[in-house]
Each structure stands twice: as structure tokens, then as C-alpha cells.
């Protein structure tokens, strides 16, 4: 049997984009709320700005979660940081900003939270975004509560990370089922597979489990569905922190 680094540090529920039912997603307020609700791990998304800063935001477009417009990749970080990333959610969060990856890692370390860093690949920037993340990970050696999990839908991004570091914990993401997932994960030496829960069934969960990897399912907010996934062998779910999932975290 293959041996992968231990990922048993991952709890049953990971706060998806922070506790985004209570605070604007991917902001420090959402990560703080996750901590207050009893979560130990948060997932968040990173992508490049025009001047190659790593910023924590989900959408390539600014308009849903900020008062900006256009594409993140067209804005310098000095402009992005002036945007309001909280008011769209609630006026009480009007001071929230788009943070850099470094700012988020500092915040998580200070608050005792562990990180799942999801790398968003866009516009042929795979090599650049991967090398920037590698730089930040290297600079933060020893400043993680537990080893971070690095995930992406981009095989190429994860390949670059793996080529540069044999130790990082990688998770390959699948929104649609990919027939070659096992070959890809073997090549990446990934410790986990993150799967859209709508495409999971018991057989698929077991197929992944037999390769000695963890199955992480996103995005689950319903407790009956969570119970079914766990019964199938899913190791952890990403949740927006709905009340019924918070009750499970206890
Ligand atoms: O990593 C799980 C999940 O975050 C992937 O989808 O679109 O919410 O980043 P998305
Ligand atoms: Mg994500």
C-alpha cells in the first residue's frame, strides 16, 4: 500500500471561505467568526493581482464581493486594498478589505487556525501563481498551526508545487468526475481529493479511500447530507457554516 503523509489532523468540518454565513467570505472577519464558532480549519481562495500579489478572494470578477468592478487580475494590490469587501454582505462589515495571502496566514497563526489554501489558476498564470505561493509557503516555514493543505482544480499548478517541494500536503479538486483522477493524484502524490459532493456516491468515495487518500467534500450545509457522506467514508466536509453544521462541530 502507498504511504502518504498523515492528514488525520483534518477535522470533520472545514469552514469554507471562513464562516461565510456570518461574515463576508474570505475576509479576516469570516476567519475570526469561524474560530469563535469552534472551527479549527478554514479554507480560502487565492489568486494573482495585476502586480503579482497573492490576494484572498474567490471570484475572478470583483463585483459580487466588493465595491470594485472588472477583473482582479487587472487591478494592482494597492488599488484592490482600497476596496470595500464587506458592505455587500452587511454594513457592519464595511471596513473589511481584500487581504494578501501573507496577511491571512499571519492572522490564522495568531488565532490558532489551520489553513487550506486553494489556488485559483487563471489566464495562463499557472507557473507564476504556483511560484508565488511556493515563496510565501517557504517564508512562513514554522509559522503554521499544522501543515497547510494546498488545493487546486488545476493539475498544472499542483504539479509545479510538487516538483518544487516533495513534502507539502496536496489535494486535487474535482467539480466534475475525472476518469483519470487516480493517475493524476498518484503523479501529484496528493494526500486528499476534494470533490463536489453532488457527484459523490458510495462507490466513488470507496474508490478514493482504497488509494489511501482522504475524501473531502464541498460544499455541504445540510446535516442529513453530511451524515450520509460520512457514512460513505468521506473524511471531512467544507461547509459555509450553516447552523445545522455548526451544531455538529459543537
Ligand atoms: O475547496 C473546496 C471548494 O472551495 C472549491 O470550490 O468554488 O468554492 O472554491 P470553490
Ligand atoms: Mg475554494
Order of helices and strands: EHEEHHEHEHEHEHEHEH
**CATH domain fold name:** TIM Barrel
Number of domains: 1
| Rg value | 17 Å
Proper CATH architecture? Alpha-Beta Barrel
Secondary-structure class: alpha/beta
Give the CATH superfamily.
Phosphatidylinositol (PI) phosphodiesterase
Strand order of the largest sheet: 1-2-4-5-6-7-8-9
Mean pLDDT: 96
Low-pLDDT stretches are none
Between the first and last Cα atoms, what is the distance in angstroms? Answer: 35 Å
Q: Tell me which ligands are bound.
A: SN-glycerol-3-phosphate, magnesium ion
Q: Which CATH C-level class is it?
A: Alpha Beta
Structure description:
This protein has 250 residues and is α/β, with parallel strands linked by helices. It contains nine helices and nine strands. It has helices at 28-36, 77-80, 101-111, 126-139, 155-164, 181-188, 202-209, 223-232, 243-249; strands at residues 13-16, 41-48, 54-56, 114-119, 149-152, 169-174, 192-196, 214-218, 236-239. It has an eight-stranded parallel beta barrel with strand order 1-2-4-5-6-7-8-9, surrounded by seven helices. It is globular, with a radius of gyration of 17 Å. Bound molecules: SN-glycerol-3-phosphate (G3P) and magnesium ion (MG). Magnesium ion is lined by residues 43, 45, 118.
Amino acid at each position: 500500500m502507498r504511504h502518504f503523509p498523515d492528514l488525520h489532523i483534518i477535522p470533520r468540518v472545514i469552514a469554507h471561505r471562513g464562516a461565510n454565513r456570518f461574515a463576508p467570505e474570505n475576509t479576516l472577519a469570516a476567519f475570526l467568526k469561524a474560530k469563535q464558532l469552534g472551527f479549527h480549519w478554514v479554507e480560502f481562495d487565492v489568486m494573482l493581482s495585476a502586480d503579482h500579489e497573492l490576494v484572498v478572494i474567490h471570484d475572478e470578477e470583483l463585483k459580487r464581493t466588493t465595491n470594485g468592478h472588472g477583473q482582479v487580475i487587472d487591478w494592482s494590490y494597492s488599488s484592490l486594498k482600497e476596496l470595500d469587501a464587506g458592505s455587500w454582505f452587511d454594513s457592519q462589515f464595511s471596513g473589511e478589505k481584500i487581504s494578501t495571502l501573507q496577511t491571512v496566514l499571519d492572522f490564522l497563526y495568531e488565532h490558532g487556525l489551520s489553513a487550506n489554501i486553494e489556488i485559483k489558476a487563471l489566464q495562463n498564470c499557472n507557473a507564476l501563481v504556483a511560484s508565488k505561493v511556493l515563496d510565501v509557503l517557504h517564508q512562513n516555514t514554522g509559522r503554521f498551526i499544522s501543515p497547510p493543505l494546498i488545493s487546486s482544480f488545476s493539475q498544472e499548478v499542483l504539479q509545479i508545487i510538487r516538483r518544487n517541494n516533495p513534502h507539502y500536503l496536496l489535494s486535487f479538486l474535482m467539480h466534475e468526475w475525472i476518469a483519470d483522477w487516480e493517475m493524476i493524484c498518484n503523479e501529484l502524490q496528493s494526500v486528499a481529493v476534494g470533490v463536489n459532493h453532488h457527484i459523490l456516491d458510495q462507490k466513488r468515495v470507496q474508490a478514493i479511500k482504497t488509494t489511501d487518500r482522504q475524501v473531502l467534500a464541498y460544499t455541504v450545509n445540510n446535516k442529513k447530507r453530511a451524515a450520509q457522506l460520512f457514512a460513505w467514508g468521506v473524511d471531512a466536509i467544507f461547509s459555509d457554516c450553516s447552523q445545522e453544521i455548526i451544531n455538529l462541530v459543537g
